[in-house]
User: What shape does this take?
Amino acid sequence: MLASVLASLVPSDKWFIRVVDLVREPMSYGAALLLFLGIFVKWRWRWVTVALFAATIAINVARIWPYSELAATQFQLADQADSRCFSALSANVKVKNREFDRLVSQIRRYDPDLLFLMETDRRWVDALGPLLDDYPHVQSHPQAHAFGLVFASRVPVAKSNIVENTYRDTPTLYTTLQVEGAPVEFIGLHPKPPLPGWNS
Assistant: This one.
C-alpha cells in the first residue's frame, strides 16, 4: 500500500499511477483496519508494519484533506443578493443512462444560470432540446462513448470554444463569461479516468 501511495505522488498521468487517486479513501480505511490488527499480532516486524500502514494513512489523508469538509474555507462566498452572483449546475449524466426526465426535472427545480453536462450523446442533446431553448447561449459536443459535453448559459458569453487538445475524443470547453462587465474564465471537461491502458 505504501509503495503505491508513494508512487502516486509522482507527477505523471500514467494510469497505473493515477488510479491510486480514485481509491485513497477506501485504501485509508483498509490501512487503518490492518494497522489496528497489526498492533495485536505478535511478530518481529509488528511495529514496522504498523508504521508503514500509519504512513499510508497519513499521506492519503494529506492528499484528501483540502477537499474535505474539515479543511478551511478557501474563499468567502458572496451574498446571494450580489448582482455579480450566478448559479451553476454541473452533472455527469452517464452516457448509458436514459432517464432524461429525472435530469430535466432537476434542472427545472434549480433553474441554474449556467449548465454544464458531461457524457452526453446525441440522444441526450435531443432530449434536453426544449429545456436548452431557455438559454441564450448553448454549445453541444455530443459523443457516443463518454466524453460529450453540453454547455448552456444565461450569463453573457464573450467567447466560447470547444477543442480536443488533451486526447482525441476528450473535448475541453473554454468560455469567457461577462459578469457585470468583468471577465470570468470557465473551463469544463470530463477528464479520462485512469483505467488500464488509458492514461488520465
